Amino acid sequence: MENVIEMLHITKRFPGVIANDDVTLELRKGEIHALLGENGAGKSTLMSVLFGLYEPEEGQILVNGAEVKIKNPNDANKYGIGMVHQHFKLVNNFTVLQNVVLGVETTKRGLLSLEEARNKVIELSERYKFNIDPDALIANISVGMQQRVEIIKMLYRDNEILIFDEPTAVLTPQEIEELMAIMRQLIAEGKSIIFITHKLKEIKMVADRCTILRKGKHVATVDVADTSVEEMSELMVGRKVDLTFDLGKPKLGKTVLKVRNLTIRKEGHGHQTLDDINFDLREGEVLCIGGIEGNGQSELVYAITGLLRDYQGQIILNDKDITNSNIRFRNINGIAHIPEDRHKYGLVLDYTLEQNLIMQSYFEPEFQRRGLIKFAQIADYADRLIEQYDIRSGQGRNTLARSMSGGNQQKAIVAREMERRHNVLIAVQPTRGLDVGAIEYIHQQILKHRAEGFAVLLVSLELSEVLGISDRILVMYNGRLVGDLDPQNTTEQELGLYMSGAKTEKVTVHE
Ligand SMILES: Nc1ncnc2c1ncn2[C@@H]1O[C@H](COP(=O)(O)OP(=O)(O)O)[C@@H](O)[C@H]1O
Ligand SMILES: [Mg+2]
């Protein structure tokens, strides 16, 4: 079968790290080629090389058998290569149509002519059932829709080689299904796709072949049909991975968090309302709030952590009423928080890794004395966390957070929050976007936390995570708790029924 793309012996270095070390990847016409590797393995870098964002130090790129130099995205476009980036590159206050034509605007007598473009966008939207309004503002449409705009951008430019960098990480299960269907339709029309994902299930569903990178090096290229999920994860991580845990009975201690009659009436600002939420969280327990995205889980977490204050009801933390307390007070009195949006609330991207690791604890006596910062202690502490949590980056504790891969940014947040003084850990989608090796590690850490008597409030959309590491599941649907389930005696199907609102029960607290 003919290769549309050959990337041969590509080497790309960054300060302190060889992101791609003699990597070869061949893409056949009409295939979906998965690119798999741990966080920081070099996948995005390799694709950025193909898309002309980085120039490799060594190696060749062939398009349809002929060697080419791709110096910038315009060159890539010329060779029919398009890319949907891990973090979208859309202009928020432009419309869908304006974003699509950006850079390839057509003019009539010196004036911008959008009519033709509009028709083409509408036609593409209909052909792929995108259901997109060309005049909607990017800021007002969902992440799933924004991704479709990125896809339309590629199709509008008649790109034949489509790169998807972790497209499913930001999608709901329903949107993932739809994207898979779109990808199948695209290859049926003769396009070729490189698909980056951490979800082996998705690779099994749509990909023909899979190339695996580990620490910048090419490990293998396999036929997906002949390779099991276990084999692929072992190739990727370099060891066997086991995501099933034997939890055993929790050793429950005293109640550390009490939520009573928590209610949010005001809708506005895109917030879901909350209707009379009641529960207790105890020491030594992993309590999971399960549910489909957007059913009030975020608002519940915002209320408990103090990010949102416009609620009724009562929140008691370690016997203190924190209903009206600010964020710092809640943190000092026991709350640690792994937030769902790692860029917005998790990290300061222009700070170093070290600064990010002590951001919530620099004022502790361990790190300062009478206002003087103990730099050596901080450096040691940062190095210990980096080692312990296997946070990979080019320049260790001095690396800017911005230059780290998404998964390693997440590990940095997890390390900071788990290691600082607290007894209630609120972990919101702690493994989103992580590779299986990192997921295993974080699950182990959460369970170690539990064994040491910490309390964990886990918010997760991932059924296997919800069922795999929690002692008790409260299901949220439309702002209410509708199920109180024992993971040991609950199937994924049953959980799904509660999550979709098809089944409900009364959730009560026993005082
Ligand atoms: N712009 C950059 N500057 C410095 N280092 C970078 C940059 N981009 C990526 N890296 C480093 O290169 C390695 C590979 O990163 P990346 O390609 O993003 O991995 P992946 O996409 O597989 O998670 C990582 O160690 C990352 O920290
Ligand atoms: Mg990446």
Q: Could you walk me through the main structural features you see in this protein, from its secondary elements to its overall organization?
A:
The chain is an alpha/beta fold and 511 residues long. It has three domains: 3-237, 3-Layer(aba) Sandwich (Rossmann fold); 242-334 and 422-511, Rossmann fold (3-Layer(aba) Sandwich); 347-421, no CATH class. Helices cover 32% and strands 26% of the residues. It is built from 17 helices and 24 strands. The strands form six sheets. Strands 6-9-10-3-11-12 form a six-stranded mixed sheet, sandwiched between helices. It has a six-stranded mixed sheet with strand order 18-21-22-15-23-24, sandwiched between helices. The mean pLDDT is 91. Magnesium ion (MG) binds next to helix 1.
Which terms summarize this structure?
alpha/beta, Rossmann fold, 511 residues, 3 domains, 24 strands, binds adenosine-5'-diphosphate, single chain, six-stranded mixed β-sheet, 26% strand, binds magnesium ion
Query: Which distinct ligands sit in these coordinates?
Result: adenosine-5'-diphosphate, magnesium ion
Q: What structural class do the secondary elements suggest?
A: alpha/beta
Helix residue percentage = 25-40%
- CATH-level-4 superfamily name of the largest domain: P-loop containing nucleotide triphosphate hydrolases
Number of strands: 24
CATH class of the largest domain: Alpha Beta
Q: State the distance separating the first and last CA atoms.
A: 68 Å
Summarize model confidence as the mean pLDDT.
Answer: 91
- What is the radius of gyration computed over CA atoms, rounded to a whole number of angstroms? 24 Å
CATH topology value of the largest domain:
Rossmann fold
Major beta-sheet overview: 6 strands, mixed
Contiguous helical run count: 17
| Low-confidence residue ranges | none
As laid out across the biggest beta sheet, the strand order is 6-9-10-3-11-12
CATH architecture tag of the largest domain: 3-Layer(aba) Sandwich
**Amount of beta strand:** 25-35%
Q: How many structural domains are formed by the residues? A: 3
Shape: globular
